[in-house]
Amino acid sequence: MTDRSAAPIERSTDRGPGPASRTLAGFIFASRWLQAPLYLGLIIAQAVYVVLFFVELWHLVESSILEGRISETEVMLSVLALIDIVMIANLLIMVIIGGYETFVSKIRVTGHHDEPDWLSHVNANLLKVKLAISIISISSIHLLKTFIEVGRMDGGVVLDRNGNVIYSSEGVLWEVAIHLAFIVSALALAWIDKMSHHHPATKREGFTAGSLESELRDPAPPVADADSGYVTVRLPAGTTLPEGARVVD
């Protein structure tokens, strides 16, 4: 039977980074708070969109109900404009909350009844995919507004009340091409995110002080080195040795 009390441990002399290195690392890590004012600025931008939403809503109510001088198509365009504002506001919320959670600090709302479902598993890849999907949704709203407007196209152009060109055949084609480019980009991001989860990094299991102590106290045969006949484990300096272990040079 193997003598388990003679299993030696090789002590490491590596004491880790020095004070200067730890100070520099702490300073670099704290620099993430420089992004906090950026997210505060996005909150102000969202407040501007809230005001813009109610301005557009008042124009719709005033033109359709109070004055009665708006057509069904114009009502549809106004509603699409309101939806466009809401979609952009949703995009801002996603960037503010998801970006702050990912790059600045944790938002400790676990267990809150209003916690978004996606916040519990948000990461940089998921955030990029969701942003791409939101951009596609906003682009779809703009494209739908364009298709409604081109219904009154005359001579390949759509003019406003002042005679200025607001839509043209070439412009519509470019809008469709840009929208398709957004879709391809979103599919590429989703594929990259899927591939990153398809081959997860394997976690290497090794000896620890606790597992070694359990091995030494267990009556089962120890895992021994084929050449030396004993277990060699490198531990940080100052670590309390398990019972039955000894230090070798």
From TrEMBL:
Protein's membrane topology: Multi-pass membrane protein
Keywords, comma-separated and alphabetical: Cell membrane, Membrane, Transmembrane, Transmembrane helix
Subcellular location: Cell membrane
Membrane-traversing stretches: 36-55, 75-100, 171-192
Pfam families found in the cross-reference section: UPF0114 (PF03350)
This protein's GO CC annotations: plasma membrane
Family: Belongs to the UPF0114 family.
Protein name stated in the entry: UPF0114 protein EVS81_15280
